[in-house]
Each structure stands twice: as C-alpha cells, then as structure tokens.
Specification:
This protein is of the alpha+beta class. The protein folds into two domains: about 350 residues, no CATH class; about 120 residues, Immunoglobulins (Immunoglobulin-like, Sandwich). Helices cover about 45% and strands about 20% of the residues. The protein contains 16 helices and 16 strands. The strands form five sheets. Strands 8, 9, 10, 12 and 14 form a five-stranded antiparallel sheet that branches. It has a four-stranded antiparallel sheet with strand order 13-11-15-16, with no helix packed on it. A hairpin with a 5-residue loop joins strand 9 and strand 10.
Length: about 475
C-alpha cells in the first residue's frame, strides 16, 4: 500500500512528491528593503566586531563554556551566580514577549543573523553569479548543480563560511584563543582545528543547503507566535477586504468594476517571499515579516494606478476595521514585569560582593603537631576577583591573640575575573582548644576597601587526648 498524495504542499520547501523545492526569491527593491539593507549592513559589522570589543579589560561578550564563565558588557558571571543569571534570563524572555506583542516578528525579519546574512550577503552573491532570479531557476530546472557559476558561488560561500564560523567561535573561546588556534599547526592543535572545521562546515551547509529551512524547521519562534501575538500586534499582512476578489487586468485595460478587488493576482508577493509562502493566505508560521511582499505589491500597485498598502504593516484588528489599541493588558503587564525582573538584576549586580571567598579545611588529617606541642591547622582559601580591576588580597586572624599565621603566598594578586587558591597555616598552643575545637574569625581584605569576615572552627586535641598524652 502507498500513502495517498497530499492535496496541498506540506512545507514551503517541499514539493508534493517529497522532493526539495528550492526557493529562489525575486528581489523587490522597495522603501522597506532599503531600510532593512541599511540595518543589515550595520548589524553585520556589529556581529563581526563584538568579539573584538573590550570593556573593563574584558570582551564585550564571551560565553566561555569550557571555563563556565559568561562575560556580558564587561561583567563576568559564574555558575554560582544563580540569582543573577535567573533574573537576566527572565528579563530577556519578557523582553522578547513585549517586542513581539508590539512589533510582531521584527527580530526575524530585520535583525536575526540568519536572515541578515542570508538575504543581504549570500543571496546577493547568488543572484550576481547565477544571473538573477531567472538564471537560478533555470539552473534548478535543468539540474545544473555543477555549473561553473554555481561552483564559483560555492567557493565564495566557503570563504565567507570560514570567516563567519570563526567569528561565531570567538563568542565562545575569545579572540586570543582563536588567533592562537588559527596560527597553530593542525598537528599541534588537532582538537581546535577540528572545531574550526566543523563550525565552518555547518555555516557553509546552512547558507548553501539548509537556508530558509532554518527558519521553517529548526527555529521555534514561528511556533511560538500563536501565543506571543494578539490581534493588536503589528504584522505584515494582506488586506483581503481591499484585494478580493482578485482579477488580472486585461492587456491595455485598467481594472474596473465595483466587484473587482485591487489584487491583480500577479504572484509578485509569492515570487519574492524568501520562505516560499503566499501572504494572501493569512498569517502563517513561515512568515518572518521581512516585508519583501509589501515592497513587491507596492511596485505593482503603482503600475496599475492603485494606492499602495495592499500588503502592509498592520494588525488583525485593523484589518477587521477596528482601531488598533497600543495600550492593552500585555503591553502594560510585560513592561511592569520587565522592570521588576531587570531592576532586580541591576540591584543584585550592583550589590553583589566584589570577591567570592571560600574557606576549606585541610585534605587528610585535620591537624598536626609541632615539636614544641603546638597545633597546626592548614586552611585553604580560594578567592575569585569579581571587581573590575586588579586587587591584592590579604587574610588576617581575629579573636586569636595567641595564634600565629603563616601565609607564604599572601598577599594574593588577582586580575579581574580570575581566581586562585592558597594555603594558610595557623599555629596555636593546644591549651587554646576546648572539646577539640577553637572558634575564630578570618578577615579577607583587598586594597580597594573590600572586607569579609568568615567564622571558622579550628580542630585540635580534646581534653581526654591531652590527658592521655600528658600521662604518657
């Protein structure tokens, strides 16, 4: 038995028989496209430059997974910063909700790196080398997969993929490490070489083969829009009240008749869509709100003497003839929630300690003895510099006048974001211990005013052990 053939296309990039449908959108150079191009060029420069920017001596953005350190705008977050990371993550999530409620999928169409690079870097090269929209479609029709022009396109794509792939890696390993990898021999650094090769290959396949399927299949945003958008959200939409019923104009004659809509059924909006959908079918998951259909339709409307805006930025409420309300429950609640969580993040960030200090006991036996009978406790101190400068840390004892502190590696000098551990040796007479313990306080300070008091309990012999030792 064979499955029945589908009556309509299941996915924009699939034909009815299950084969790949290559989407070659026709460029529509309208006013919205010109604005998007300016934004895209600025974003491409920004995406490439961010790993090289420094703030407070740190990368502007570095998601260092091997070290489990996340640097954003010159501030380093550690896995122990649970509250900070939670508040920041929730704030970003609410920000996405608010942006979508107000402006729809403006991120997808105007700022997403996938869209920016695909539509304003890779597709222009493809059109230039393959002879535009018609040339690419002709090569697809004749199955000229290894046409010299197409091979030249792949060669340029490979170079761009290497640049973008290494830039992507710089967000996770830093520019210094990446430069070392690039200048090292693959025999000396085989793992980094494989990492660079794999990421480059993934970028190459993304923009050469996977392309718009990243938006249609991999990205979850389209599936979220059903709950993120409401009837007042700004979307790119076709106005059926004005456009229907569709009628193609006769040659040499304008569209006339009260029953005829403004849509001339020219399919310009379909031919220009980078995800291969028909905007006239209503709001769809595949629509990334790139406005190419609006530019294409406006061009046709001018030619046939009709007003622009048959496809435009609007809302479902406006299409139904109602007034679009900017103030509504989600545009009030989302900003309040964002202010609450992001304000909490800023407060927690400003009030968090300038250093993380951890005190640990000795490994092995809890204490040892000196020849004169004194008791020695080894204490390990781990300090992480969370300030924005170089700091010198010292440790002193409080409430222990009869104790002696030996700290071979103090003061401990740490640059911002770095941590180190050192060992302290505290020597006390055995008479200072009661029930085998002695409570005291360690104070850790730096040269910029940081001070932290840490209670600690030293271990030593109890009275029975001392009596037994004296009796012997």
């Amino acid at each position: 038995m064979t499955a029945p053939a589908p009556t309509e296309r299941v996915l924009a990039t699939l034909n009815a028989d299950g084969s790949r449908r290559w989407i070659r959108p026709k460029l529509s150079k309208g006013k919205l496209w010109q604005r998007r191009r300016s934004v895209a060029f600025g974003l491409m420069v920004l995406f490439l430059a961010i790993p090289h920017f420094r703030l407070n001596g740190k990368p502007l953005m570095l998601l260092d997974l091997p070290r489990r350190e996340f640097t954003l705008f010159g501030t380093t977050f550690l896995p122990t910063d649970t509250l900070l990371l939670m508040l920041l993550g929730i704030s970003l999530l609410i920000g996405i909700f608010l942006l979508t409620a107000l402006y729809g999928r403006v991120w997808c169409g105007w700022a997403c790196p996938q869209t920016v690079y695909m539509e304003f870097l890779f597709r222009p090269i493809e059109r230039w080398l393959e002879g535009g929209w018609g040339g690419s479609r002709q090569m697809d029709k004749q199955r000229q997969h290894f046409h010299p022009r197409r091979l030249a396109k792949y060669a340029i794509y490979a170079v761009l993929a290497a640049i973008l792939g290494n830039t992507f890696l710089a967000y996770f390993v830093g520019t210094d490490a990446l430069q070392h990898w690039m200048l090292s021999s693959p025999y000396e650094e085989p793992v980094p070489f494989v990492a660079m090769a794999v990421v480059t290959l993934m970028v190459f396949l993304d923009f050469t083969w996977f392309r718009e399927q990243t938006c249609l299949v991999a990205c979850p945003y389209g599936r979220w829009q059903a709950v993120l958008l409401d009837k007042q959200s700004l979307i790119v939409a076709y106005d059926p009240a004005r456009g229907e019923p569709r009628r193609a104009p006769k040659k040499g004659l304008p569209i006339a008749g009260a029953s005829a809509g403004d849509c001339v059924d020219c399919n310009a909006c379909v031919n220009t869509c980078p995800t291969g959908i028909d905007i006239r079918d209503g709001l769809q998951m595949e629509c990334i709100h790139c406005t190419q259909c609006a530019d294409a339709c406006d061009t046709v409307m001018r030619k046939v003497g009709k007003p622009e805006g048959l496809v435009r930025y609007t809302s479902k409420e406006a299409l139904e003839g109602h007034i679009r309300h900017f103030i509504r429950p989600r545009t009030v609640l989302y900003p309040l929630a964002f202010a609450l969580f992001f304000g909490g993040f800023i407060y927690a960030l400003e009030t968090k300690s300038k250093a993380d200090v951890t005190i640990l006991g000795a490994i092995g036996q809890p204490f040892s003895r000196e020849p004169d009978g004194s008791v020695v406790n080894q204490v390990r101190v781990k300090i992480a510099n969370r300030s924005n400068g170089v700091r010198r840390y010292t440790v002193e004892l409080l409430d222990a006048d009869d104790a002696k502190l030996i700290a071979p590696e103090l003061p401990l000098t740490l640059t911002n974001g770095k941590n180190a551990a050192t060992s302290l040796f505290i020597i006390m007479p055995e008479s200072a211990f009661h029930n085998g313990t002695h409570r005291m306080t360690l104070r850790v300070t730096d040269d910029a005013g940081f001070s932290q008091l840490i209670p600690w309990r030293l271990r030593g012999p109890d009275e029975h052990e001392r009596e037994s030792r004296e009796h012997k």
